[in-house]
Amino acid sequence: MTNSAQSPLFVIYGVTSEGQRFRPSDWAERLAGVLSPYRPPTDGPCCPISYSPFAVPNRIDGVPCVVIDHRLREIEPLAWKFAVDFAHDNRLKTAEGDHTLLSDNGVTKPSPAK
Fold first, then answer.
1. What are phi and psi of 92, to 5 degrees?
2. pLDDT per position as a tens digit, 28-86
3. How far apart are CA 56 and CA 76, in angstroms?
4. 50 close to 32: Cβ distance less than 8 angstroms
5. DSSP 3-state assignment of 45?
6. What share of the chain is helix, strand, coil (3-state, %, to 5)?
7. pLDDT tens digits along 14-28
8. Which class does domain 9-101 fall in?
9. Domain-by-domain residue ranges, the chain?
C-alpha cells in the first residue's frame, strides 16, 4: 500500500451539481459510519464507534463533506464503488487530488468540481 502522505483523496461535498445543499444534514457522518469497518490491516481491534481513517467526515468552506482516501479502493473495492456511486446517484459535487486539497484547518484551496 502507498504512504498516506502520498495517497490521493476523493472528496464528496454536500452540495448538488445544481448548487443545493444536500440533506439530511448529517449525511456525511452517516456515509463515513457505513465505511467505518474498512481500515488499514495494521489498525488492529478498535472500539466499535470510530471512523475509518480512509473515510472521514469534515467541513470544507462550511460545507459538510466526506474525505475518502484512495487506499479504500485497494482494501475494499465495493466500499469504494458504493461511495463513488453515492456521490453520482445524488448528483453531489466531488474533487480529487492530494492532501494539498486540505489545509491544516480543513479549508480547501480549490473549488469543488462537478
1. -90, 145
2. 999 999 999 888 876 666 566 789 999 999 998 889 999 999 999 999 999 999 999 99
3. 16
4. no
5. coil
6. 30, 25, 45
7. 999 999 999 999 999
8. alpha beta
9. 9-101
